[in-house]
């Protein structure tokens, strides 16, 4: 019975995930969230039930539209799987679940537009702050609240001293809420985000050199940082990845 229940939670999570993707696509546009079923963006065919089953449709259709064979973004199944995992961990904590769903929408929006949506981040920050307060009442509330500004400070300084060239102010605003969400694990997420960012940047540079790409690679071909912040936060929050422990283990 336990497995059946887990499967149900995963299915609900994946379905919510595909809804979150639509929310992110339509955020800031005039389109209503509930009006009409989704269309294929290439041939505008109305999608039917078999096109809309989370994860499975993508696999069965091999990532292509049934009629026009246009590629479907790999981001759909990824978001559905991530949301399913989040539901499995958090279905008993509604506030944390809402905070994470909001974070997913922010990340999709950032992937697609390379802009962190200010309004959504404000709500995310306020909810993460509320969660930090509720979780630390009667405990060390002061330290818990300090993690937000501590996490945001390096991004704010990078933004300030580069005049907005290296990093946007949005990363600092997002960091505030991430710090409140993660508490003391902020340090682990911060280090992991930089490692992931550096590793992926190296892979991209290597791959582009290998392809002998015509476009010259300069510092300007910037890799956005928010996806790494999100990935690191996800891994540290749900899988308790202990980077400080790992560093201690490797170097001392
Ligand atoms: Zn199509």
Automatic annotation (TrEMBL):
Prepilin type IV endopeptidase peptidase domain residues: 98-201
Source organism phylogeny: Bacteria, Candidatus Tayloriibacteriota
GO terms (BP aspect): signal peptide processing
GO terms, molecular function: aspartic-type endopeptidase activity
Keywords: Cell membrane, Membrane, Transmembrane, Transmembrane helix
Assigned protein family: Belongs to the peptidase A24 family.
GO cellular component: plasma membrane
Protein's UniProt keywords contain Magnesium: no
Protein name, UniProt field: Uncharacterized protein
The organism of origin for this protein: Candidatus Taylorbacteria bacterium RIFCSPLOWO2_12_FULL_44_15c
Ranges for domain Prepilin peptidase A24 N-terminal: 12-91
Keyword Cell wall biogenesis/degradation found: no
